[in-house]
Amino acid sequence: MSHYPGAGPTVYDPMTLPSDDNVNAYTFCVELKGSQWFLQKGKMIAYYGSMEFNGVGHGGLDRLVRTSFHSPLHASDWVVAQGSGKMLLADRAFDVNSYDLEDGNLTIRSGNLLAFQPSLALKQSIVPGFLTLIGTGKFVAASNGPVVFMEPPIRVDPQALVGWADCPSPCHHYDHGYMTGVMGGLRALTGLGGASGEEHQFEFVGAGTVLLQSTETLMAEHATGAVPPDAGVPGSGAPHTGPSQVAGAPRLPGQLGDLQRRFGL
Amino acid sequence: MGFREINSKMVEATVVPGQRLFSQRGAMLAYKGEVSFTPNTAGGQGGIMSMIGRRVANEDTPLMTVEGSGTVLFGHGGHHIQVINLSGDTLCVEADRLLAFEGTLQQGTMFLGSQGGVMGMVRGQISGQGLFTTTLKGHGAVAVMAHGGVFEIPITPQRPVHVDPQAYVAHHGDVRNKLSTALGWRDMVGRGSGEAFQLELSGSGAVYVQASEEKL
């Protein structure tokens, strides 16, 4: 497939889409061959092939959930995709990347994790809002801006933290240096001057890797997985209206019924 | 010293003892070493008078002083970051676009009416600068935030540059700016091109433009 500048966007078809790789910086393509992937609700943007998406509570998935999903807190956010085909994942134009774990562990902010292979086990981290993946397999994560990898010892703003791998859980670090001295005393007495906003960090020590995203803005949760609240959409909660009963008007004798709608009258 | 760009949204600064750094409050992402962050009541440099001046001018962005020894990563709000190195000239930028700057730079406030009187004030209103803007002068590096990527356009005496006021980020050098209007009857009836106002910069220096018309 030729791609040169000025040729317009690259057009993909099921054959040319990459398999388990990035399509561009913001989209990831997962290939399913009768296999299963866990993915967070609303992160699938398109798919080729025949797939079904079932909530984690689905009966047929009991065995899978028992082996690789141990986070009841997040159970309603996750679905299992199974079937065969290619599936595109994206999250609000954030940078998307896949990571391979080999008999390792990685903890990640729950909102940043898009999808993972069931060969990994998902568990809740001790740190609230984070999930730990243990085992061998691939997972896909999003970040606002590229992920930066740093090595401990390091202190990180809690909001800029994406996750950490192989190192012990962080501890809180409080910086109270600004409270000392004359100005600090005045500040403590009067409350004037405010805080620098950086008194509290997560401190990482030991061997491992810390993953940072280049912004402190937490990704706002958009309800992308929700069904639009329109009439006639199953699961939307809106009152169900009959096929031809637009605006709830009862059908009068002599009307053309459904034909009317079909011909656009 | 100076800032090292790690990626388009993150810069790394090296802090050494004796050299201060100012940064916007809450813009620190991570740090190594022993670094302290002190809230800066005065909102920058100078004495109590310059603090009052900044308050009046509404250019008193919450700043903090960064001191110690180590490396600090800065980033804020997912905005793109442009590092500008100044060597003796003056940079004009809005205070809330300042992510971090070195303590070697002299911070000041400039009244836009001083450049072209009433038209200067009108220009400030249109470009979202308000009546005042922040100036940084001296030798050192500044990290400026912008929505979308930033590019630098050099200004030479022969070639003035026209910039959309909403896409304007900052400029440095010996630059005069004026607002040029291209208002016509179409704008009056609401069928304008949306580009009725432009910022014309002439002189010698450079202007930084963001690839977006969104304010910070």
UniProtKB/TrEMBL annotation, chain A:
It comes from Streptomyces cyaneochromogenes. This is AIM24 family protein. SUPFAM superfamilies: TRAP-like (SSF51219). It comes from the Bacteria. Residues 225-265 are annotated as: Disordered. It holds the Pfam family AIM24.
Automatic annotation (TrEMBL), chain B:
InterPro entries: AIM24, AIM24_sf, Trp_RNA-bd_attenuator-like_dom. This is AIM24 family protein. It comes from Streptomyces cyaneochromogenes.
